[in-house]
Amino acid sequence: MLVNWRIIGSMTTMNHKPDYEKELRDAGVRITRPRRVILDILTATEDHPDAMEIFRRAVSVDSSISLSTVYRTMKLLEERGTIHRHAFNGGPSRFEQASGAHHDHLIDIETGDVIEFRSDRIEKLQEEIARSLGYDIVHHRLELYGRKRQAK
Amino acid sequence: MLVNWRIIGSMTTMNHKPDYEKELRDAGVRITRPRRVILDILTATEDHPDAMEIFRRAVSVDSSISLSTVYRTMKLLEERGTIHRHAFNGGPSRFEQASGAHHDHLIDIETGDVIEFRSDRIEKLQEEIARSLGYDIVHHRLELYGRKRQAK
DNA sequence: CAAAATTTTGCAAATGCTTGTCAACTGGCG
DNA sequence: CGCCAGTTGACAAGCATTTGCAAAATTTTG
Ligand SMILES: [Mn+2]
Ligand SMILES: [Mn+2]
Ligand SMILES: [Zn+2]
Ligand SMILES: [Zn+2]
Hints:
Chain A contains six helices and five strands, in the order H-H-H-H-H-E-E-E-E-H-E.
């Protein structure tokens, strides 16, 4: 029996690959070499890298890219809703494409692994709670921190 | 009709006031003047102040207290499980006593107000999800960000 | 109760991540 | 191909938080 919240593979890369370059250009944003490199990294990525990690990957493609540009680009993309910013644990910001279906995260506190999941029931309950408190949810954050259950 | 997750007042201050001084002393932690002041502020507090705000309140009681000591004390208390640390939005850490019942937070993105709530159904669902993914939850974070619904 | 042993403090300097400044550069239209 | 506002790289600055250290406070001993 398949549980409805189990996710096979990455939710973000399963969907059709969006054409960020076109989207951005249409919005009047210039497609520069650094931005193209960063966008490519983001679309190819299955994990949730932080700025430094994106910078490392970018440098391996074009060694002239600067960390500042990575930060600036992440901010730009976040403001445009292209990517999501997470702050697991309280560590540095980590990013992922926003194109996939909404999902939340389970972080393995032993290994740091991040597992994506989605529960429509929780999403619904959140709405109900907010509503009952007189609010509309704009966004939310649900993170579970746990460790692998020991087979005993 | 009372909704089961509505909370009247602060969850943290509704419960019996724990004797932190004794607890700490028994654990071999020295109970100093700065620590006493900070503990008093924490137990009296209804909100979720950050280190700077706790510092301000502390200084108004004992002007010789330093911000370093506030940070050091917060870290100590967090490690001991006496307080919880939050990072709403990605802003500076904000703290609250851990003594009350577990609850999550709804943040008003317009005013910054923090509303506490608890949903046993969501708590239960989280457990089920983690379990189905092969994990035991150690802790979790659920934050709803919203704005007051307009009466139209 | 005083001295020794140990922890904690205040201050300043250091850290880690992120943003700001600015001269040099370049993407995209004409 | 040339123009020029938008963008970049280099590096300084900002912000929250942590750390080194000598002095001060607390607890332990005698
Ligand atoms: Mn994700
Ligand atoms: Mn709270
Ligand atoms: Zn969600
Ligand atoms: Zn909860």
